[in-house]
Design a protein that fits this description.
Layout: H1 4-11, H2 16-44, E1 57-63, H3 70-76, E2 85-91, H4 98-108, E3 113-118, H5 122-127, H6 134-143, E4 150-153, E5 158-159, H7 164-169, E6 177-181, E7 184-188, H8 191-215, E8 225-228, H9 229-234, H10 247-257, E9 261-264, E10 269-273, H11 278-295, H12 297-302, H13 308-318, H14 323-347, H15 351-355, H16 360-374, E11 379-382, E12 385-389, E13 395-397, H17 402-412
Parallel strand pairs: 1-2, 1-4, 2-3, 6-9, 7-10
Antiparallel strand pairs: 4-8, 5-10, 6-8, 11-12, 12-13
Helix pairs in contact: 2-8, 2-13, 2-14, 8-14, 8-16, 11-16, 13-14
């Protein structure tokens, strides 16, 4: 006589909740497989470079404090095998700890055209604050010194190779391409940062690849954004994105709205992920999640269909550890590990994923919890500032305005 579990599994006598969880598992399996296909499509894209196409480039580097491995990160941009380029470091606070390091970089690389822009007075700072996003304000300050038509924006915690500019600028040979952006892997210190890096490599990047394949690139990544000045002016300059949390998203989204192509390069840069405590890491990731939700609400809701690790575990429990539950969990986890390895290790060459591959299920559970937190709430904390998110991703200060702060400052004096 067949036992009840076997009959239950064969006859598929599933409850509504079981059926929903099974659907979520199958959708996740499809997502994982499609991400592998999307990666193959990216790697098949033509890489025809014209060696004579080497237009001069202005690199804009906003600085706010010192990141881990800061000297190596900044110096890597000074070692480019590229004929003509300039680097503009921009700092808002004249007391910023990064200023001394930038001056050291200028001294160590006299052959490179490097400038340092500092908002050196309170009045100057007020005049140059064009929005709530202070990083964008910093970029706008740097733009005033940019000599060349092609701009490269890269965060201060990015490390690149000597062929970086050659590879990233190459797609701009096509005049219809307005923006080029890059995937990235993270170098992490400490188990909290390692878990975050694993999520970036095996969860975030598969999502980027799938999005690119399904609808084309309509966003950019802050690791690198190469954009023409003309394109930036077309979308309204940095002022157009100065009140948005996800400025990198907007620098891809707005040009796409104006008909420009956004290209995801297959050049992988390295992102320095500093050691942090669990609270700060979760706070940062929830900020990103809420930012994604307000920018792309339906896309954010659709992410629930990609958490196969969670849905398969729930299905296993709701079917009372049936044969069906075990089978679905096995297939789901195998495909999950496959996409994690192919994207994280083979493509991104992320050593965190390679070494701590077995932590992926734990990172998926944490990622699902972050997704749930991102569903609600409109308040974020960013570099010590408490801000409110509005529909569409704009930021509103939850603290006194700059004008109010200035008046208070004057009263104190």
């Amino acid at each position: 006589m067949l036992n009840s579990n076997f009959v239950y599994s064969v006859n598929f006598n599933l409850t509504l909740i079981d059926s929903l969880l099974l659907f979520l598992c199958l959708s996740a399996i499809f997502f994982y497989c499609y991400a592998i296909y999307a990666l193959a499509a990216l790697q098949r894209q033509p890489q025809t470079f014209v060696s004579s196409f080497q237009p001069p480039v202005s690199i804009l580097k906003p600085i706010c404090g010192l990141d881990g491995n800061a000297y190596a990160n900044l110096a890597s941009f000074c070692r480019q095998h590229y004929p003509v380029y300039q680097i503009i470091f921009s700092v808002r606070d004249p007391q910023d700890s990064g200023i001394a390091l930038v001056k050291q970089i200028i001294q160590d690389f006299p052959e490179v055209d490097i400038q340092l822009v500092i908002s050196d007075s309170f009045a100057d700072l007020a005049a140059r604050t064009i929005g709530t996003n202070l990083k964008v304000c910093n970029l706008a300050n740097a733009l005033t010194k940019a000599k060349y038509e092609i701009l490269v924006l890269a965060d201060s915690d990015i490390l690149v190779g000597e062929d970086y500019l050659q590879r990233v600028i190459a797609p701009l040979q096509d005049q219809s391409i307005g923006v080029v952006t890059c995937p990235y892997r993270s170098s992490a210190i400490g188990w909290v940062a390692i878990l975050e890096a694993i999520g970036t490599a095996t969860d975030f990047h598969p999502g980027v690849l799938v999005s690119r394949q399904l609808e084309g690139m309509k966003f950019a990544l802050g690791s690198t954004i190469a954009i023409r000045k003309q394109v930036l002016e077309t979308i309204g300059g940095f002022r157009a994105i100065a009140d948005y949390l996800a400025d990198d998203f907007q620098l891809g989204y707005l040009p796409a709205l104006f008909g420009y192509k956004v290209v995801l390069s297959n050049y992988v840069v390295e992102h320095g992920l500093a050691a942090s405590n669990l609270r700060d890491s979760l706070q940062r990731q929830i900020r990103w999640a809420r930012g994604t939700r307000v920018c792309r609400p339906w896309g954010y809701l659709g992410l629930v269909m990609t958490y196969g690790t969670v849905s398969s575990l729930l299905l296993l429990m709701t079917t009372h550890y049936s044969t069906l539950g075990v089978l679905v969990l096995t297939i789901t986890w195998l495909t999950r590990f496959a996409v994690g390895w192919i994207v994280g290790v083979r493509f991104l060459q992320d050593q965190n994923v390679k070494k701590f591959f077995w932590l992926m299920p734990l990172r998926d559970l944490i990622g699902f919890a972050i997704w749930c937190c991102g569903l609600v709430g409109d308040t974020i904390v960013w570099r010590g500032r408490r801000l409110k998110l509005t529909k569409g991703g704009k930021l509103l200060p939850s603290s006194p305005s700059l004008k109010q702060s200035r008046n208070k400052h004057l009263q104190v004096e």
